């Protein structure tokens, strides 16, 4: 990347199992599940019964009132995670060179809760009761816009709309911006798809679990896997040029070493085998990493038997015999799939795993017959230098990201 290495110097997490990186990591290592019956108003009679819900989040603790009224819950999550990431990296807002700092986020569901509320006002009370922020709060680019305005960041900002894999693609976009000369990028994804309107939009997804039992609703790679459940939350990162970061005294936590994305079509899980394998090979090549140098895999783990089989075969195709030896984990089994935010949360988990030398377990799944070494039950101590994070979108995107301990 033209001599400029992109490193993660800060991370912020808003997740169903914890707010802040420390609480999130502790819950992951304990294998704690945050899946719960959906108790949101208006959702009682929908067939979707279980999700990963962020509890105890007070947006007023992280977001000023003037931004709160303009934004949806998904942007509240993103702004809070961004603030936590900036504090972790000791990155100030309103920098001396505002064009040296950028923002890139990914989103798939947008501001459904805000949009539903305003549409209800429209049909029940008329257009004069619809607020002006309806025009922006639902938009998938709202988080990028509000974070950049709030922080005074004027670098090459953007938004990634590439399905669930967007959480990884946003980080790759950030790394390439750093390679081209941007000093720092706030990058990541957060989602809030658990409102009646958003949930109805998801009901057509093949593979959605309708189980009412949080212990059985999402069991990726398990012999009784029967689909996935949605979640809210996400993570944001400060991505910087390594030399710039060290010069200002920041601690690199992980290097973004390689990334590749492919597309194989909506819900064509058999085809995702080739697409994901190609993405893995490409990410390894960019990272100059041999297959047997991968120390842990954070799997996409859809929980649909056909998709889980395709992912295991893609690992075998790309990693060869090492695919049966490398530890594989899917901590999102205890969180649900937060669309683009899921890959960002997995990346946060991978950074923390590299730092602590621990592979967090996969909740709920006890038996795996896919020929992979799935970590279950308890965290596994391991010498971790390089992590592979995988994501596939429901519309057909496949992405692989290689992280390396600096």
TrEMBL record:
Alphabetical GO biological process terms: fatty acid biosynthetic process
Keywords from the UniProt entry: Acyltransferase, Transferase
Pfam families: ketoacyl-synt, Ketoacyl-synt_C
A GO molecular-function descriptor: 3-oxoacyl-[acyl-carrier-protein] synthase activity
InterPro entries, per database record: Beta-ketoacyl_synthase, Ketoacyl_synth_C, Ketoacyl_synth_N, PKS_Beta-ketoAc_synthase_dom, Thiolase-like
Domain Ketosynthase family 3 (KS3): 3-405
Superkingdom as given in the UniProt entry: Bacteria
Family in the record: Belongs to the thiolase-like superfamily. Beta-ketoacyl-ACP synthases family.
Name recorded for this polypeptide: Putative chain length factor
Species for this entry: Kitasatospora setae (strain ATCC 33774 / DSM 43861 / JCM 3304 / KCC A-0304 / NBRC 14216 / KM-6054)
């Amino acid at each position: 990347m033209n001599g400029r290495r992109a490193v993660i110097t800060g991370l912020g997490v808003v997740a169903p199992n914890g707010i802040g990186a420390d609480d999130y990591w502790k819950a992951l290592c304990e294998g704690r599940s945050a899946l719960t019956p959906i108790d949101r108003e208006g959702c009682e009679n929908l067939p979707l019964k279980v999700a990963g819900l962020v509890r105890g989040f007070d947006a007023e603790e992280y977001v000023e009132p003037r931004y709160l009224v303009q934004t949806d819950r998904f942007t509240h999550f993103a702004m809070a995670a961004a603030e936590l990431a900036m504090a972790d990296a000791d990155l100030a807002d309103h920098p001396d060179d505002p064009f040296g700092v950028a923002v890139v986020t990914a989103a798939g569901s947008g501001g459904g809760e805000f949009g539903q509320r305003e549409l209800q006002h429209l049909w029940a009370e008329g257009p004069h009761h619809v607020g002006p922020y309806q025009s922006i709060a639902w938009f998938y680019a709202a988080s990028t816009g509000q974070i950049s305005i709030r922080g005074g960041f004027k670098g090459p900002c953007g938004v990634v709309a590439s399905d669930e894999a967007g959480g990884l693609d946003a980080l790759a976009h950030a790394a390439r911006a750093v390679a081209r000369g941007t000093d720092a990028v706030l990058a990541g994804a957060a989602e809030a798809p658990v409102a009646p309107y958003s949930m109805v939009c998801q009901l057509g997804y093949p593979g959605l679990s309708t189980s009412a039992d949080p212990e059985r609703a999402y069991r990726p790679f398990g012999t009784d896997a029967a689909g996935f459940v949605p979640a809210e939350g996400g993570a944001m990162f400060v991505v910087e040029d390594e030399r710039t970061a060290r010069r200002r005294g920041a601690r690199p936590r992980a290097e973004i070493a390689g990334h590749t994305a492919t597309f194989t079509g909506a819900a064509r899980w058999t085809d995702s085998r080739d697409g994901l394998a190609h993405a893995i090979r490409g990410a390894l090549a960019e990272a100059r990493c041999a297959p047997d140098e991968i120390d842990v895999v954070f799997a996409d783990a859809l929980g649909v038997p056909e998709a889980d089989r395709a992912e295991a075969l893609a690992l075998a195709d790309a990693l060869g015999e090492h695919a049966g030896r490398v530890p594989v984990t899917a901590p999102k089994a205890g969180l649900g799939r937060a669309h683009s935010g899921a890959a960002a949360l997995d990346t946060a988990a991978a950074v923390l795993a590299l730092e602590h030398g621990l592979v967090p377990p996969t909740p709920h799944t006890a038996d795996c017959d896919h020929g992979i070494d799935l970590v279950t039950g308890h965290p596994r101590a391991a010498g971790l230098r390089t992590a592979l994070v995988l994501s596939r979108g429901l519309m057909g995107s496949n992405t692989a990201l290689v992280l390396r301990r600096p």
